[in-house]
Design goal:
- A hairpin with a 2-residue loop joins strand 2 and strand 3.
- The protein has a single domain, classed as Winged helix-like DNA-binding domain superfamily/Winged helix DNA-binding domain (Arc Repressor Mutant, subunit A, Orthogonal Bundle), CATH 1.10.10.
- By secondary structure, it is of the alpha+beta class.
- The chain contains four helices and three strands; from the N terminus they run H-E-H-H-E-E-H.
- Strands 1-3-2 form a three-stranded antiparallel β-sheet.
């Protein structure tokens, strides 16, 4: 697995973007709800920037807002990770 998905937060961002595009604030809010704690904006945007610079996430403009979407490579890596997790939890 690439080092860019070794961060749980980055993996969770990819999971949120697997089937929809979202504004950064919507992603941050959903993560905060899931973690039940506030995320520092600097840390959150650093994670988004790393995902974008690694080619896993891309930004598009919709109206006056930027939205984030998972790239094909990001989706492939996320699904590889999910399959790896599922293989570890399978009962034989």
């Amino acid at each position: 697995m690439t080092k860019f998905l070794q961060s749980g937060r980055r993996r969770d961002v990819c999971a949120l973007l697997d089937d929809e595009t979202l504004q950064a604030q919507a992603i941050k809010s959903r993560l905060e709800d899931h973690y039940d704690e506030r995320i520092e904006p600097k840390s959150f945007y650093a994670a988004l920037d790393r995902l974008e610079s690694s080619g896993f996430v891309e930004t598009h403009t919709e109206g006056i807002h930027d939205v984030y979407a998972l790239t094909d490579d990001g989706r492939r890596r996320l699904h590889e990770h999910v399959n790896w997790l599922l293989a570890r939890t399978s009962v034989e």
